[in-house]
Design a protein that fits this description.
7 strands; globular; Rossmann fold; alpha/beta; seven-stranded parallel β-sheet
Length: 249
């Protein structure tokens, strides 16, 4: 993480950040990076024990963090998460990273419609509600940044990933619309669309891939910091990052 901070180190002191899906993988890397840059990071995921372990790591590194057990498929759970933000930051929210996501795989002809419903609940409806809650706190302040972690499958189609691809395309569409709606309020909304990253989700989706050539979660965290370090006069709707070797991912 030290090389990450030496390269891109926005000063996030006095800022409050929410990261969903923070217990592992990309979310964990993003949360750690934000904490190292000075933000008070509110960690959200279903595994409270994993979140508390990460919160302790962030504090040991000199940062501040709060762990909140959260199910992004539940509107009540998400509303409770943002109530915790209110309690620790007097309603101030500077950064939201919608990272929590899930994947189910198989050819469309054989995939139950319930798969599509579940993935939309987690990958689309959850971020939709989180963005609503964030905007209610950011609009009065006339500032804030929302970053949605989409995927390369939000830009392309791959076999055996119909339901997952549909959900990530939907998330990208949500991002584009909210970006336009948020701009007059001084709020930036963007999406990051990673290709192959060495995570459990990618391993399940593409067991054929050589993990040694995949990107690492820190590479996505670097991109989040890059977006946060950009001046207010600059706007980026989406960034597609992919592993350097020639491949469809």
């Amino acid at each position: 993480m030290s090389d990450l901070l030496n390269t891109l180190a926005p000063n996030l002191s006095e800022q409050t950040a929410v990261v969903t899906g923070a217990s592992r993988g990309i979310g964990k890397a993003i949360a750690s990076a934000l904490g190292a840059c000075g933000a008070h990071v509110v960690l959200a995921a279903r595994s409270l024990s994993d979140l508390e372990a990460l919160a302790e790591d962030i504090r040991d590194a000199g940062g501040t963090a709060t762990a909140v057990k959260t199910d992004v498929a539940s509107e009540d759970s998400l509303k409770s998460l943002f109530q915790v933000v209110d309690s620790i930051a007097d309603g101030r929210l500077d950064i939201l990273v919608n990272n929590a996501g899930a994947g189910l795989y198989g050819e469309i002809i054989d995939s139950p419609a319930d798969d599509l419903d579940l993935l939309h609940a987690i990958n689309v409806r959850g971020p939709f509600i989180a963005c609503q809650q964030a905007m209610k706190r950011m609009v009065p302040a006339k500032s804030g940044t929302i970053t949605n972690i989409s995927s390369v499958v939000g830009l392309k189609g791959y076999p055996n990933q119909g339901a997952y691809t549909a959900s990530k395309h939907a998330l990208l569409g949500l991002t584009k619309t909210l970006s336009v709606e948020a701009q007059p309020h001084g709020i930036r909304v963007n999406a990051i669309c990673p290709g192959g990253v060495d995570t459990e989700l990618v391993t399940k989706a593409r067991p054929d891939l050589d993990r040694s050539v995949l990107m690492q979660p820190d590479d996505v965290a670097r991109t989040v910091l890059f977006l946060l370090a950009m001046p207010a006069r600059a706007a980026v709707d989406s960034i597609y990052i992919r592993r350097a070797i020639s491949s469809p991912w």
